[in-house]
Design brief:
Oligomer: heterodimer
Distance between the termini of chain B: 126 Å
Strand content of chain B: 5-15%
Structural class of chain B: alpha+beta
Radius of gyration of chain A: 22 Å
Largest sheet of chain A: 5 strands, antiparallel
Shape of chain A: elongated
Order of helices and strands of chain A: HEEEEEEEEE
Structural class of chain A: alpha+beta
Strand content of chain A: 35-45%
Largest interface: A-B, 56 and 54 residues
Number of helices of chain B: 9
């Protein structure tokens, strides 16, 4: 009888260990910060936000056709593996970010979508492999007489 | 030339007079017809006489006292390894009081049975020297003790019932550790990929330069790239522009239907 109780106890311990291991593993997943900048760019002459002067890609075509750039928001979010994070855009759509995988070389595989809530009306899927600190851009949405340019930088 | 027709064993038995009447008669008949077999028999007889002469000569040189001492030495040689391996309690517990098993009435020691290690060891339990050869069954105490130990209601040895759950716990911990390691994300910094560049060969007239270590150029995965995209019902394109330090920066440009309408 004592042996049976001992056996049950150890079997329970085994099951608990197997259940807890993935949770512990997930808790060990490093959080990845994402810096998002939402820019309203227009072709009309204007000013370029000084904070954007250091962004080299925005000085190159086709972005250099915009003669004014204004930063609408700079949300900073924390991403975890397989967890969606939504960021509201000024045009009513949502930018959804999800870290899919941390590559062995340190790069981050991220999934992006831009849609209205509960819809898939604009950009259903974008999968990017990004080095930490290097941005990527999604542009083209119309807003307030201009074009939205969204820059996303992971793991800075 | 006649060929041998009598087997060696039959010929030897004929010489030793160990054949029955029929076999002897048949052998003698064959022997009479074969000069070769007759020669073999004569050679066998000469060999036997020679061996007998040698053994008789050796026996004559050995006195009765020497024979007895030699036999005692053999017995002592047999007892010595047994005494070296067997503990003293084996002597006291195994040999009961008054037992004539170890010492016979004529004072001559009987050689103790010993386990000779060999291929048969695999079939014996551990400490087989005691278990297999000690006259434990002849001891009533030992027999009773053995019977008590083999009763079904008696508990096994102290750790026999709890050892395997302990092993199960170790296996559980190992499985959990392996699972955690297998699912652990790579939090190490990006591993640089080394590219080995072969040194430029020296000109025939120039000095020969021996480089101990080749130059290593460390490349890094920088920038961003689009792996997959679904524009849905919209028009779009993907391209890259040079970013800081000229790293490639991915750009997705997608039309806005609402804007077009």
């Amino acid at each position: 009888m004592r042996h049976m109780w001992t056996t049950k106890r150890y079997l329970g311990f085994l099951g608990l260990a197997l259940l807890v291991a993935p949770v512990v593993t997930r808790a060990q997943t490093p959080a990845v910060h994402a810096d998002v900048v939402v820019i309203l760019a227009k072709e009309e002459p204007g000013t370029i936000d000084p904070s954007l002067a250091a962004v080299g890609a925005l000085q190159r075509p086709p972005f250099n056709t915009f003669r004014s750039m204004r930063v609408l928001s700079r949300p900073r979010v924390t991403l975890r593996t397989d967890q969606d994070v939504d960021i509201a855009l000024p045009n009513g759509r949502q930018l959804r970010l999800r870290i899919q995988q941390v590559m062995p070389d340190g790069r981050l595989r991220v999934r992006v979508s831009i849609n209205r809530p509960n819809q898939s009306d604009y950009l259903p899927l974008l999968q990017v492999l990004a080095s930490p600190g290097d941005p990527f851009f999604v542009a083209g949405q119309a807003h307030d007489g201009g074009t939205l340019v969204i820059g996303i930088t992971l793991g800075s | 030339m006649s060929t041998p027709r009598i087997e060696d064993s039959v010929l030897q038995q004929l010489r030793d007079d160990e054949l029955d009447a029929d076999e002897r008669e048949q052998a003698l008949r064959l022997l009479a017809d074969s000069s070769h077999d007759q020669g073999r028999l004569r050679a066998m007889e000469r060999l036997g006489e020679f061996v007998n002469d040698v053994t008789a000569e050796d026996a004559a040189q050995l006195s009765a006292a020497d024979s007895s001492r030699m036999f005692e030495n053999i017995l002592m040689g047999l007892d010595a390894p047994a005494a070296a391996h067997a503990p003293s309690d084996a002597e006291t517990s195994v040999a009961p009081s008054g037992a004539g098993a170890a010492v016979e009435t004529d004072g001559r020691k009987r050689p103790k049975l010993r386990l000779i290690e060999g291929e048969g060891l695999g079939t014996l339990p551990p400490r087989s020297e005691k278990v297999a050869f000690e006259p434990k069954l002849s001891s009533p105490e030992g027999l009773a003790e053995e019977r008590r130990g083999s009763q079904p209601g008696q508990a096994p040895d102290a750790d026999g019932g709890t050892k395997w759950p302990g092993l199960l716990a170790v296996v559980a911990l190992a499985a959990a550790a392996l699972l955690a390691l297998a699912l652990r994300p790579a939090d190490a910094p990006p591993a640089p990929i080394a590219e080995v560049v072969a040194p430029v060969p020296a000109t025939p007239d120039g000095p020969v330069v021996v480089e101990d270590e080749p130059e290593v150029i460390v490349a890094s995965h920088r920038g961003t790239e689009v792996e997959a995209i679904d524009f849905g019902s919209n028009m779009g394109t993907v391209f890259q522009v040079p970013g800081e330090r000229d790293v490639p920066v991915a750009v997705v440009w997608i039309s806005d239907e609402e804007y077009v309408r």
